[in-house]
Design a protein that fits this description.
The complex is a heterodimer. Chain A is α/β, with parallel strands linked by helices. Chain A contains 9 helices and 10 strands. The chains are: A alpha/beta, B mainly alpha.
Chain lengths: 247, 379
């Protein structure tokens, strides 16, 4: 394992009286792949969204690539440039073509020349296996294709860390595999990944570590084999039984 | 509840898709004479329409008086029109007064200048409406065109005799107020709408809210009155701002408040995910707003935007209360000439045609734009 890419140190967050993150401490090393799972409302999405400050934490510290997340916008800009994110609902820009979706941030945030950004975008679109859709608009693509574009769009910023917030939850079953395959391929390239997902097969295959969250805290964490085959707590046992029954 | 189920099967898809001409009779049978109720409505409405059209043609064309004789001193003899009253329109009043109505008291020999200015305005609208001109130099075209309009109207350079704006009137005033008004109000409205949604700057938000609520809470007439009567009282001695400019500023501020609310509606309709995706990519606030948020938000509000535009185009006629002579006011002025006093119907009809021409063009264009922009991104 390399040095720490993301460090959360006793992170707390409240929505009004609701305590949604309780003393979350987690270190993700470079090239490590962490899968976060847990029942809905457990705070896993909130936690991952705190890492690029789509949500603000109220106590504790978060460091990304050695920079602390604070109110300082310059630090935030640096961090967002290095952290890519894939959303449950894709969030492609519907008024831009696939290619424009992918080149917008490299051109305007990384200040890359347009031709170079387009070349880069095509490389990643080929990697997610949809280069032929480059001139279309998001609305003309299937859900699975849109999510693969969203992955390519995030990769075009050449981030050091990729965050996935339930990337397959909004997809029809037959499209889940194409997105997971893309993520597995990405995992093979050594990308640091934090992934909130219910896809236990994916977790078994690519995760170095699985983190189980419930009611705003990290209950258990360890290699997938240990988490799935030797759960220590009742909460994890209950969760696993529910997940397995669902499949 | 069973509306759709009972009606839907009765729609013969074949006949609707039939080629025109061959299917004209079928179309009529389907849409006008489908059952006894439909037939009755068709006959009654058809009768009313025919009667109205016949009466209108008889009045406006067949019985109309197109010109009247003039006495040696140039006074029109309107007795022909008087005799035709009730049976025929007196278009002679338009023939006699159209230059006064269109160009106001602008010096008669120089009226080619406002005429040219009007053509430049119309050309500007046409160019701006064509999407292939939507480039970076469109603002430059606007600046150039508006400068030329200013030079033409004011004169004083290039051998054009100077004409102060006290002598301007008619269509140029209407177009100036509407065009400059919307050109400045629209960007201002976007800033106000963004300010009102700002979470980082509470002071700016408060300011925007107060501005919008204050302006929306009073009628345009009182804003114009404030601008023209009260405002000079607050100015230091010797400083005076032109009357037209004051009315123009009032129109800009007023329409900005209304447009801001329309734009805000579009901003609110955008899903939060669009903001988050742009944030996650590291786009700054202004880049996010310019590339992601506004293009989508404004697209959503094209119909209410155009609705507001059309409303303000017509509302410019309220400047008459501060002593500016727009198109509608010039119609009134023309009617104050004793020989023509009783022919207001003809004058107002003619003015209505001018207003309709501009407003209808705007509305047609917006529909086309909606279709075109909608087609490129089927959701």
């Amino acid at each position: 394992m390399g040095k720490a890419a993301i460090t959360l140190d006793k992170v707390n967050k409240w929505y009004g009286p609701l305590h949604v993150l309780r003393d979350i401490s987690l270190t993700v090393h470079e090239q490590e792949r962490v899968v976060v799972c847990g029942p809905s409302g457990s705070g896993k999405s909130t936690m991952i969204r705190c890492i690029n400050r789509l949500e603000m934490h109220q106590a504790g510290h978060i460091y990304v690539e050695g920079t602390e997340l604070t109110d300082d916008t310059r630090a935030l800009d640096t961090i967002r440039r290095e952290v890519g994110m894939v959303f449950q609902s894709f969030n492609l820009f519907p008024h831009l073509t696939i290619l424009e979706n992918c080149t917008l941030a490299p051109i305007w945030v990384r200040k890359m020349p347009k031709a170079q950004a387009e070349e880069l975008a095509m490389t990643y679109l080929e990697r997610v296996k949809i280069p032929e859709q480059a001139k279309k608009y998001p609305g003309q693509l299937s859900g699975g294709q849109q999510q693969r574009v969203a992955i390519a769009r995030a990769l075009c910023m050449q981030p050091k860390v990729m965050l996935f917030d339930e990337p397959t939850s909004a997809l029809d079953p037959e499209m889940i595999k194409e997105v997971l395959d893309t993520m597995i391929e990405l995992a093979g390239s050594g990308m640091t990944m934090v992934c909130v997902t219910h896809e236990m097969g994916f977790a078994r295959e690519v995760a170095h570590r699985v983190v189980f969250m419930d009611r705003g805290e990290i209950v258990e964490s360890g290699p997938p084999k240990q988490i799935f085959e030797d759960p220590q707590t009742d909460r994890l046992k209950l969760f696993l039984s529910q997940i397995l029954r669902g499949h | 509840m069973s509306m759709t189920t009972s009606v839907a099967p009765s729609l013969p898809i074949q006949s609707r898709g039939a080629p025109p001409g061959a299917g004209a009779l079928a179309w009529m049978k389907e849409n006008l004479f489908a059952n006894w109720l439909s037939t009755a409505v068709t006959l009654v409405l058809g009768y009313v329409i025919v009667r109205v059209v016949v009466a209108l043609v008889a009045w406006a064309v067949i019985g109309a008086v197109w010109s009247v004789p003039y006495s040696a001193t140039g006074v029109p003899d309107t007795s022909v029109c008087m005799n035709a009253k009730g049976t025929g329109a007196c278009w002679a009043v338009i023939a006699d007064k159209y230059r006064l109505i269109l160009f106001g008291r602008y010096p008669y020999a120089e009226q080619w200048r406002p005429a040219l200015a009007v053509l430049i305005f119309i050309g500007l609208y046409v160019v701006s409406a064509m999407r292939r001109f939507w480039r970076k130099d469109l603002p430059l075209i606007w600046i150039a065109a508006l400068t030329v309009v200013g030079v033409l109207m004011w004169g004083g350079v290039f051998g054009l005799s100077p004409v102060t704006d006290d002598y301007w009137g008619g269509l140029p005033i209407t177009l100036i107020l509407a065009t400059f008004g919307l050109a400045f109000a629209f960007p201002l409205a976007i800033l106000i709408a963004l300010g009102r949604r700002s979470t980082q700057l509470p002071a700016v938000r408060m300011l925007c809210v107060v501005f919008v609520e204050l302006i929306r809470g009073v009628p345009l007439i009182s804003v114009l009155f404030m601008a023209s009567v009260m405002f000079p009282l607050f100015m230091p001695e010797g400083v005076s701002i032109d009357k037209l400019l004051r009315a123009q500023i009032a129109v800009i501020l007023f329409s900005a408040a209304y447009l801001a609310e329309v734009v805000r509606g579009g901003l609110q309709a955008l899903p939060r995910g669009q903001h988050e995706a742009a944030d996650a990519l590291g786009l700054s606030y202004w880049k996010k707003t310019g590339f992601i948020i506004l293009p989508q938000a404004l697209r959503l509000v094209i119909p209410p935007l155009v609705n507001t535009f059309i409303g303000f185009f017509k509302d410019t006629s309220l400047v008459l209360i501060v002593g500016l002579f727009d198109l509608l006011t010039m119609g009134k002025v023309a009617l104050s000439d004793p020989p023509w006093q009783s022919f207001s119907t003809e004058v107002y009809l003619a003015l209505g045609v001018v207003y309709i021409a501009f407003c209808f063009a705007m509305s047609r264009y917006s529909r086309g734009l909606e279709r075109e922009l909608g087609a490129s991104q089927r959701h």
